[in-house]
Structure to design on (242 residues):
C-alpha cells in the first residue's frame, strides 16, 4: 500500500510540475508578487487529500484472511492479507484505477498543449535562446513524465485488472511480472533524469569524484560554450578534463 501511495504522489507531482510550468509561462508577471508559500500549501493539500483518499479506498478493499470466502485457496496465512474478490468495493476500486489513469493523461496532455501554445504566442516577445531553453525544458519534463507512466502506471493497471479478474488464466504470473516492473520503474526514471537534465549529471559527477580513493575534486567551473570543467588532483599532479 505504501508503494502505491508513493507512486501516486510521484505521478501527481509530475502533473503539478507541468501545471506550474504553464502558470509560470502564461502568468509569470502577475504572480511576481504572490508569496511562494501558497505554492507549497497547494501541493501539500493536493498530495495530502489524494493520499488520504487512496489509503481509505485501499483499507475498504483489503479483507482479513479469516473473512475471505474461499479459505481453501490459501495455503499459508502468515503475513498476508486479501482483497475483496467481488462485490461493489472490488468494482469501485477497479473503475477508480482507470478513471484515475484517464485523468492523469488528460491533465498532462492539457497542460502540455497549453504550455506549447503559450510559448508559440510569446515567441515574438522572447529572446531566441530563452524560447529554445523553455521548449527544451518542457520537452524534457514530458519525456521524464512518460517513463513512470510506462514502467509504473501500465503495470499497475494490469495488476488491478488481474486482481479484479483473479480467475483468468495466468493471472498470478502476469501480476508477479508486473509487480517486478512496477517496483523497479525508479531505476529507469533516475537514468532518464540523468540523461535529460545536465545539473543532475554534474551533481553525480561531483559525488563520484569525491568518492574516488585516488582523486580529490578541487574545483568545478564553467568553461567556454558552457562546457563543464573539472580540476582533479591525482597523486600530487593536477589534471583537468571537460
Amino acid at each position: 500500500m505504501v508503494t502505491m501511495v508513493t507512486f501516486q504522489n510521484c505521478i501527481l507531482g509530475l502533473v503539478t510540475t507541468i501545471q506550474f510550468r504553464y502558470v509560470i509561462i502564461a502568468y509569470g508577471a502577475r504572480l511576481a508578487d504572490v508569496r511562494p508559500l501558497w505554492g507549497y500549501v497547494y501541493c501539500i493539500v493536493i498530495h495530502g487529500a489524494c493520499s488520504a483518499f487512496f489509503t481509505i479506498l485501499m483499507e475498504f478493499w483489503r479483507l482479513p484472511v479469516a473473512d475471505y470466502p474461499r479459505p481453501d485457496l490459501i495455503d499459508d496465512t502468515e503475513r498476508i492479507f486479501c482483497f475483496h474478490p467481488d462485490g461493489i468495493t472490488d468494482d469501485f476500486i477497479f473503475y477508480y484505477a482507470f478513471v484515475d489513469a484517464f485523468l492523469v493523461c488528460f491533465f498532462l496532455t492539457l497542460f502540455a498543449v497549453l504550455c506549447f501554445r503559450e510559448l508559440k504566442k510569446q515567441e515574438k516577445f522572447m529572446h531566441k535562446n530563452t524560447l529554445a531553453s523553455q521548449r527544451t525544458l518542457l520537452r524534457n519534463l514530458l519525456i521524464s513524465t512518460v517513463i513512470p507512466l510506462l514502467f509504473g502506471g501500465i503495470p499497475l493497471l494490469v495488476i488491478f485488472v488481474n486482481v479484479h479478474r483473479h480467475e483468468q488464466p495466468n493471472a498470478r504470473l502476469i501480476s508477479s511480472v508486473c509487480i517486478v516492473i512496477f517496483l523497479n520503474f525508479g531505476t529507469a526514471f533516475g537514468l532518464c533524469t540523468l540523461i535529460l537534465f545536465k545539473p543532475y549529471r554534474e551533481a553525480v559527477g561531483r559525488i563520484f569524484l569525491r568518492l574516488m580513493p585516488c582523486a580529490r575534486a578541487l574545483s568545478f567551473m564553467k568553461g567556454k560554450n558552457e562546457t563543464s570543467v573539472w580540476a582533479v588532483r591525482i597523486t600530487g599532479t593536477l589534471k583537468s578534463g571537460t
In short: The first strand starts at residue 62 and ends at 63. Confidence is low (pLDDT under 50) at residues 215-224, 234-242.
